[in-house]
């Protein structure tokens, strides 16, 4: 998508200018170009759909902040000043409330485009032009679908509409549509997209929504719905959606798409998993759908270097950092099971001390590819992209008078290596790295979850899939006898989701759909997060009332929406 991304700004300024306030109404395009001037050629339609991709980027470009709402990542704030996120306060409008407007901006833009493509299509004659219009419609419906999915996931029942809103009067008359109805409409959009879109693209079309992406998100919507229904005791509905989700995911599995570098772990000091999260590998077949960026020097870059990196790696600010809890999840190569829990201590020679580098030896290769602990260095690449060069080490806390990586106040005792660029000449807010929304391991793990539920336990196929994911960490295969029961195999799925998908914004949504907040942070004590030396970092649901848990599962509707439209009723936990 780097190849067509530079078209977005022209379209954003001319075709989709909007007012500056944040409520739903002001996402309505108010100054569209007249159809007498635009919507005359297929190029006009392509430009318009690119504008929908641009709006979608705004919705999902920083999903990794959601990891701060889980237990394994600390988000000390956000580089875009949109809130401070921790598990006990994440649902407030002052944190992720802006996503309400972002989703509806994309949806209204998509509806506007769909209406005009329909009119343009009637004037076209050639089969190739008609096929292009069908594909653009399918891409736009896909983007509309995933934005509605984000809305019902966070807010439940939401206003639903499929045509461009015509001014304030119509927008202020919207009511909340039951999320079951919205879910069915989402699946209809994704089903259409799956029938029309190609499986892969080449050349200038790389990065666009594909048939595989439509299947993957259809399966994800069904899986999430199944989890929600299971939590409500609606067993039949849940089982039906688990079955349908598995069928969607199986379509992708049957394509025999390989993991990056065939899932091989690579060298211990330079794991392949790290390379997957470098921009020069973002079109690998493992990446099913991404939020696309067009940096550098196009004013369309991403902020991952700023959010994950340090002052010594692209002048980053370490807004997002791992914790000792994440470090404890990386298993031993020798046993394939967990190591003894780290001891939070300043003693750098104590056995299992979190500040003792030897405590991390012999672990899942994905650990080295993902985080830095005391005395670890960033991976510096030579021109061949394979050789590890030298760099200054990370050390939590100032000591010994030696220069170490400046981690800019990140309090947890660790910093990320995943997503950190090691190429020069690219600003911290001007990067080209795509943010992965759907990868092949995510599909495999969701499929395993669905089959484990419907089958009452794992099958040999599921062990094969999880072992392929574990292979990239150089871990041994799962002990099938140990994980033969449904509940035990679910723990294996959860474990792989934690270490494989960290930093990609999935854990928070997993906790919510599995309704695990009360298990992770039991009342009344909750949990306290400490850094690697044992210093208190933050409280998580400590002495929290039941309402705080309810607010974790169902977000606050932005009050501004309710102020202008009394038909939109606030979610109960926030009344």
Topology:
Layout lengths: L7 H7 L27 H19 L12 E3 L17 H4 L1 H24 L5 H29 L11 H5 L7 H18 L14 H21 L3 H19 L18 H5 L10 E5 L12 H5 L11 E3 L1 H4 L37 H6 E2 L42 E2 L18 E5 H16 L4 H12 L14 H16 L5 H8 L2 H4 L6 E4 L5 E5 L5 H8 L5 H6 L11
Antiparallel strand pairs: 1-3, 2-6, 4-5, 7-8
Helix pairs in contact: 1-2, 2-4, 2-5, 4-5, 5-7, 5-8, 7-8, 8-9, 8-14, 9-14, 14-15, 14-16
Radius of gyration: 24 Å
Number of helices: 20
CATH class of the domain at 42-197: Mainly Alpha
Q: What percent of residues are in strands?
A: 5-15%
What is the CATH third-level topology name of the domain at 42-197?
Serine Threonine Protein Phosphatase 5, Tetratricopeptide repeat
Total strands: 8
Order of helices and strands: HHEHHHHHHHHEHEHHEEEHHHHHEEHH
Signal peptide: 1-19
Main location: membrane
Domain RagB/SusD: 285-574
Family: Belongs to the SusD family.
Describe the overall structure:
The structure is a single chain. This protein has 575 residues and is mainly alpha-helical. It has a domain at 42-197: Alpha Horseshoe (Serine Threonine Protein Phosphatase 5, Tetratricopeptide repeat). The radius of gyration is 24 Å and the shape is globular. The two termini are 43 Å apart. The chain has helices spanning 8-14, 42-60, 93-96, 98-121, 127-155, 167-171, 179-196, 211-231, 235-253, 272-276, 304-308, 324-327, 365-370, 440-455, 460-471, 486-501, 507-514, 517-520, 546-553, 559-564; strands at residues 73-75, 287-291, 320-322, 371-372, 415-416, 435-439, 527-530, 536-540. The strands form four sheets. The chain has a two-stranded antiparallel ribbon. The protein has a two-stranded antiparallel ribbon with strand order 2-6. It has 20 helices and eight strands. Mean pLDDT is 90; it is low at 1-32 and 382-388. Helix content is 41%, strand content 5%. Helix 14 (440-455) runs antiparallel to helix 15 (460-471).
